Amino acid sequence: MHDSFFKKIEQKTGVSMEEVYTLANAIQYADFSDEKQVKKIVRKVSKIANKTISKEMEDQIVNSVVKKGNKLNLNEIANMMNQKNE
Predict the structure, then answer these.
(1) Which of 13, 26, 62 is nearest to 80 (CA)?
(2) Which has the closest alpha carbon to 48: 5, 13, 73?
(3) Tens digit of pLDDT for each residue in 40-85?
(4) Tens of pLDDT along 15-33?
(5) CA–CA dist 57, 19 (Å, integer)
(6) DSSP string of 19-61, one letter each residue
(7) Which of 58, 59, 71, 76 is the most exposed place for a label (fewest CB within 10 A)?
(8) Is this prediction's pTM over 0.85?
(9) Which phi and psi (to 5°) does residue 33 adopt?
(10) Rounded CA gap, 37 and 27, in Å?
(11) What are the backbone angles phi and psi of residue 66, rounded to the nearest 5°?
């Protein structure tokens, strides 16, 4: 990919590509049945997305992901976060 493409994404989102790569790497190798790992990822996603989530919402997302094991559905998590913000 071209550096200018990444720079445009960084400018529009305020998220560095390094953060995106770090998150993608964490997700790729994560054990989604491990509550601690899932909690770290949820917090990272929340920080990168610049969305504050309550402790209850964090717990709900973590429990949902851990319950499903290695079947992570990012759309489902995004929908859960958006429902609480409406």
Answers:
(1) 62
(2) 13
(3) 988 988 888 888 889 999 999 899 888 877 666 667 666 766 665 5
(4) 888 888 888 888 888 888 8
(5) 23
(6) HHHHHHHHHHT--TT-HHHHHHHHHHHHHHTT----HHHHHHH
(7) 71
(8) no
(9) -95, -5
(10) 9
(11) -60, -40
